[in-house]
Amino acid sequence: MQFELSGTYIDELRELIELKKIDSIKEQLNELYPADIAQILNRLKDSEAAYLYELLDDETAPQVLLELDEEKREDLLATFSTKEIAEQLDNMDSDDAADLIAELPENIQDEVLSQIEDIEQASDIAELINYEEGTAGSLMAKELVSVYSFETVTACIDEIRRQTDNVDVMYAVYVVDDNQKLIGMLSLKKLIVSHPLARVEEIYDADVQFVKTNTSTEDVAEIMQRYDLVVLPVVDQLGRLIGRITIDDVVDVIKEAAEENIQRMSGISDDVDSNDKLWRLSRARIPWLLVGMCGGILGSRIIGTYEEQIKIHPEMAFFIPLIGAMGGNVGVQSSAIIVQALANNTIINDRIAPKLIKELGVGFVNGIICSVLIMAYAYVIEDWKLSATVSLALFTVILCASFLGTFVPLTMNKFKINPALATGPFVTTLNDIIGISIYFLVGRLLYGVF
Amino acid sequence: MQFELSGTYIDELRELIELKKIDSIKEQLNELYPADIAQILNRLKDSEAAYLYELLDDETAPQVLLELDEEKREDLLATFSTKEIAEQLDNMDSDDAADLIAELPENIQDEVLSQIEDIEQASDIAELINYEEGTAGSLMAKELVSVYSFETVTACIDEIRRQTDNVDVMYAVYVVDDNQKLIGMLSLKKLIVSHPLARVEEIYDADVQFVKTNTSTEDVAEIMQRYDLVVLPVVDQLGRLIGRITIDDVVDVIKEAAEENIQRMSGISDDVDSNDKLWRLSRARIPWLLVGMCGGILGSRIIGTYEEQIKIHPEMAFFIPLIGAMGGNVGVQSSAIIVQALANNTIINDRIAPKLIKELGVGFVNGIICSVLIMAYAYVIEDWKLSATVSLALFTVILCASFLGTFVPLTMNKFKINPALATGPFVTTLNDIIGISIYFLVGRLLYGVF
Questions:
Q1: Which of A296, A315, A370 sits opposite B321 (nearest CB)?
Q2: Among B170, B304, B361, whose Cβ lies nearest the Cβ of A189?
């Protein structure tokens, strides 16, 4: 029953569009959910997508718009008049509408807002677009049902009935005092099973989690996960209830944070998607490639100082890649564990030393294993001098990389820099350079001494 | 108002435990949610944790148990009798209880099950532990409210009232036919605003998303996200309603999948956590380190064949780290984008060629930029031969790494291997070796020809 998009499906639909078979197209689209239709539009040419969008009914169209890829949505909206955009916004939840209006070119935002027919919706959106990105305010929607504690269950139900058109999905009713201050909540289940004449104050739950408008979205996500919430009320600085955040928006935050981490770890410096344009994809990657190049150049200068030694012992060059790669691998492993622990809040800020010691322990164990193996190999293939150099250097490099892989992300986190940045090209490049330095230093010592 | 754990907090609590100040401890714990208490227990010694756990009330204790780190929970449960474990399970949702019983040593599982007082709970758990891990069946809970389509709203509400003790959180009532086949749903909101004498068949929503017990958890997560669901019913092979999955469990699936991807990408071959024991952390990392070593040894053999050339032109060795690192970086960037696109289902299976072409395009652009820069640098510092060698090799390596970084994860995905495995030590090692081969091959050609 779940929709699965295939290339053949797209081709067939394209043919229907080409032949303008409106009825068949409408029939096909009717079977699908907005998210599925959006998936299809993402893969059509702009003109085809606009044609298909026109065929959608008033309720489905705004939902499809919201599910589109950002670039596609931009292209589609560019073909709309401000009046048409306003009509779409009128049929959305206030938070979605605010997100969408923020994507529009600044010069038309006011015009679109002024053309929204529902005055309440327009003023809700106007309020929401003022909240800073990355805060609870930017995530919340204005649609909610609140009741006073002195009301009866029947009055609550009447209120829900009145608001039922505005609030699509509802899990709870919030309880406020005379000053609109949030004092508790009432689950719909509780409302259903309570006596119609019971007063809210007798049955409501005063133990309610909430956040302020300026709480960070990371904290919102953390709270909703930790306490298994599907909806979280938002209050202003005076504690007055002004909005609510639902779990679907938070799931997006969680996924985006994970994706951002993966991208930072992989040396991609901007949020990109494989469907983005080529130049955007290139631009997002070039910064860390240039850092890597600088690292490589620095490495070449270090090796350059050993030019004479390499002439006499060219076998020293053989193990350069091994030392570099192992330093990088160990560093990435350590930092990945730390970045993950930081993301999950399993590290207490004032207890960093035990983590460092543990990672060094892991480095010690794995360093011994690897260096013994490479010592045996190099002894058989080459001679004992090279064997001693490589294994001693490898052991030192692994220990060093374990330390840096732990220390760098922890330090970055302390200075409020995304620690995932440390787990990728940065730590790899750093360990590459340090690895080579150690290797040739050990080599000079051993070859010099004996 | 949100709880923030600090080292000082733990120290103070430890002191209270030491002094056995039961009242103060209870007072402190009373202010906290189960998830917060679990966070504290995770950081205490086993004996302290057991002491604190004893002080919790019957409703809080099982919730705390569920939120503990797995190792801590194992240690704590080891001090319990089977009867005590059974008591904890009796106060949990069936899905949580089934997950927990699956963690117990096999020889005591049956004994614990037989000691659960509530027979219905015991048989629910017995059913759930049979579902394979990674399927919808393993995620679902048995607690749900279902009604027949011929019932009235009032009858539904009575049914909810009857079940209210079993079902903690409820968002919808499911509608079934005489054979218990799922035919639709009714949101609590709809139930509240409908006339008490209205029949379910007049008001229910027949358009309900569901999954089968053997649907994969990834698909469950994908469906709940795509359609913004907070609860998803589960049916058996005959379409009969047998359970439901809630969004909080799916959030865990999403987070675990992201974490697993990050670990695989970082060359960690087992699911570990920074709190795991040292030997577990070491064991999880050694496999990819050994692969990296083999790659390094292979690299050393390749360079070894150019020993004579290095003696004459030791400057060739200078740029070995640069070539290796750049191949690795580019490969990781490309594969991260592809792994992400695969995770988000933005790649259609039968349309792989466009992705390859795009990544090669990005590689081409970045390859040109990097190789021109390095050509200029090497020309100024060394000579035109080395400059030409390095830049030509770098360009080829970047193109090659772009191709492999795209092709390898796509291919692995086709063969149902986690593509994240390709984005890390594997692709780095591969590109290292290929990079060095290309570099020395180009060098031999250029130095030989001119």
A1: A296
A2: B170
